[in-house]
Each structure stands twice: as structure tokens, then as C-alpha cells.
Write a structure and sequence with these properties.
Elements (H helix, E strand, L loop, with lengths): L1 H13 L4 H8 L4 H10 L17 H20 L4 H8 L3 H13 L7 H16 L4 H5 L4 H7 L2 H10 E2 L2 E2 L1 H23 L4 H23 L5 H4 L12 H8 L4 H8 L13 H22 L3 H27 L4 H8 L2 H10 L4
Antiparallel strand pairs: 1-2
Helix pairs in contact: 1-17, 2-19, 4-7, 4-17, 5-17, 6-11, 9-10, 10-11, 11-12, 12-16, 12-17, 14-15, 16-17, 17-18
Length: 351
């Protein structure tokens, strides 16, 4: 059963946008042209099948991409064995948290887009979450939001609330930490030698590296101020190394510490932008290996989700750039496809 799921995931991955495709997308003149191009591509024809593309807005495209991402996940999970399904269903926690945080930001509001958000989140929330969807979508205040949540998230929201009001950043941070902690413990207990542990653990470490860099480099946070934002448990980053990164005195010292970790290849970055790029590439490369060689269905699905998230983010960047009439060279530099695509044209093959 799981072999069929792995085969299906790899087939879906094979339909991904190439760098040449991204170059063609960046050559579009309007948002509507972007939508037409995506609808014509095998990876996204289903997502845009029933959409009216005339005058389509960026926000509508983003909604369609996100909905298809979630529906793909739902289609894949149906074919899993009971054991692997239990683990893989937990990955949807990221989707659930996005919805909870959206509801928290918009509690009490009544605007036209709310119905669209409800349609986007509803199917998987009702199927895989203990959250009371109807109560959450209609919540007017923090108390009603808290009442709609499962016990673990409810406790987190209540602890982060201050005098009946929510510190949004604190709530968001604490809820993500709670999610990652629970999932880490489950994987450690049930999937210790599974490829999903390596991929998930690496994702946490990369997340922590980037979070420390931003808080230290951009906001000059102290060690004590950064520590509450660290996701635990880390995977291959020792606590002593995390402390060194938190107390580093500039990008050169930060990279010097990073050189002595399993993530030393990121130390080649000379700026925050380069570190972002190398970090994303590190995870994509690791996910790519899992997609090609792993025999673990949960790991392959998780790797595909990493790939798909990266791909849709790249599409959104291109569309937003076209919306603001950025020139072709600038768009290409943002998405990093020009050189690779040119190589593809010269070689006549896929990148």
C-alpha cells in the first residue's frame, strides 16, 4: 500500500516546475497571464480547472495554490497504512496553526474574504483537527478562540494572554514551539530510524539557525532574549553551539561558529540574504534525496511538502513582482532561475 503512495508522490514531483518554466512565468506581463500559464502546466492544471481567469487577482491565485497544496496532501494520506497515516496526519498541524493564527488576527472582523478563508481551511480542519471550526471562524474575542481549541493549544493561548488580550507574537511563538515539541517526541518514540526523523530534525535546526541569525543580527537580541524563541528539541545542534550562535558578535563570528556544525556549508554565506538562500537549498537538496531514494512513505510525503511549499512561494514572488511591474532582470535575480534556465536551453534538457 505504501509503495503505491511513494510512487504517486514521485510522479507528482516529476511534474514540478523547472527553472525554464519559472523563466517563462517571469516573462508574463500581467497577473492574468501568470494564471493562464499555470493552468496550462501539468502541476497546476487541476488547481485552476474551474477558476475564472479574467482579471484574476494575486490573492485569488495564492488561495488556489494553497488549496491545491492541501488537497494534494489529503489525496496522498488516503493510501497510507494506519501506522504511517497516524504520523503523516500530524504534518497538517502547520495548516491548522496557520488558520488559528489567522483567526486570532481577525477575531471579530466581518469582511468578504472571510468566506474564502473558511472554504480554504475547512475541509482538512474538520477531517484531521480537534479544533471547533465553526466556533473559531466566528470567534469575536480571545475567550471564544481559546474555547474552540484542543486542550494543548488552549493552554498555550491562555498562558500567552495578558489581561484578556493576546500578545500575538508570543502566542504564535509558543504555539509553534508546542507543535514542534509534540511532533518531535512522537517521531523519536515511533520513527527513530526513519528518514522522516532526519528530514524533520534538519528542518528544526535550520529554522533555529535562521531565527537566531535574524534576532541577533537584525534586532541585536541578547542570549536571554533569543532563547525563548528556540524550537526544542534541536536535532544536531548542541546547546553549547546554540549559545555561541546567540552570543556571536557579527556575521563573521556567526559563520565561524556555524563552520563547526553539521551545517557548515551554510557558513559560506556573506549576508543574511545568502544565508536564507543556502538554508532553503540545504533543505531542498535533502528533501530531493528523500524523494528519490527513501522507502518511508511519511518521509517522502514530508519531503514533497517541503518542495511544494518552496515552489508555491517562488510562484508568489514572481507574481507579486509582475504585479508591481518589476523588470525581468530583477525578477530573475529574486527567484534565482536565470543562469540555470539558460544552461537548460543550451543543453536542451531539464534542469
Amino acid at each position: 500500500m505504501n509503495c503505491a503512495v511513494i510512487t504517486k508522490v514521485r510522479a507528482m514531483y516529476g511534474k514540478r516546475l523547472t527553472d525554464a518554466d519559472f523563466l517563462r512565468l517571469s516573462a508574463c506581463k500581467t497577473v492574468e497571464e501568470c494564471a493562464v500559464f499555470l493552468k496550462s502546466h501539468p502541476a497546476y492544471e487541476r488547481a485552476f480547472a474551474d477558476a475564472d481567469l479574467r482579471g484574476i487577482r494575486r490573492s485569488r491565485i495564492e488561495m488556489l495554490l494553497k488549496r491545491e497544496y492541501c488537497l494534494e496532501f489529503d489525496r496522498l494520506i488516503k493510501g497510507l497504512s494506519e501506522k504511517d497515516s497516524e504520523l503523516t496526519r500530524k504534518f497538517i498541524g502547520t495548516y491548522e496553526l496557520d488558520f488559528i493564527m489567522w483567526a486570532l488576527r481577525n477575531a471579530g472582523s466581518d469582511f468578504p474574504e472571510k468566506a474564502s478563508y473558511a472554504l480554504l481551511y475547512e475541509p482538512l480542519i474538520r477531517k484531521y483537527s480537534k479544533t471547533d471550526f465553526d466556533m473559531l471562524i466566528n470567534a469575536q474575542d480571545l475567550r471564544q478562540i481559546s474555547a474552540s481549541l484542543d486542550d494543548s493549544y488552549k493552554t498555550t493561548v491562555e498562558k500567552a494572554a495578558n489581561g484578556g488580550k493576546a500578545d500575538y507574537l508570543t502566542v504564535e511563538n509558543e504555539m509553534w514551539k508546542a507543535y514542534y515539541l509534540e511532533l518531535s517526541q512522537y517521531i523519536k518514540k515511533h520513527c527513530k530510524k526513519d528518514d522522516v526523523q532526519t528530514l524533520f530534525g534538519s528542518s528544526i535546526d535550520i529554522h533555529n539557525i535562521m531565527r537566531i541569525f535574524r534576532l541577533r543580527g537584525y534586532f541585536d537580541y541578547t542570549v536571554d532574549e533569543i532563547i525563548p524563541f528556540i524550537i526544542r528539541p534541536s536535532y544536531r545542534l548542541k546547546d553549547s553551539v546554540i549559545s555561541e550562535l546567540c552570543s556571536s558578535g557579527g556575521i563573521k563570528e556567526f559563520m565561524s561558529v556555524l563552520k563547526n556544525t553539521p551545517y557548515r556549508q551554510l557558513a559560506a554565506a556573506e549576508s543574511g540574504t545568502e544565508l536564507e538562500t543556502l538554508s532553503a537549498k540545504f533543505l531542498r537538496d535533502k528533501a530531493g534525496k528523500v524523494l528519490h531514494f527513501s522507502e518511508s512513505a511519511p518521509a517522502v510525503i514530508y519531503a514533497y511538502m517541503i518542495h511544494k511549499s518552496y515552489e508555491t512561494d517562488k510562484i508568489k514572488i514572481i507574481i507579486e513582482s509582475i504585479r508591481y511591474n518589476l523588470n525581468r532582470e530583477m525578477i530573475d535575480s529574486y527567484v534565482g532561475t536565470k543562469a540555470k534556465a539558460n544552461q537548460s536551453y543550451r543543453s536542451g534538457g531539464e534542469v
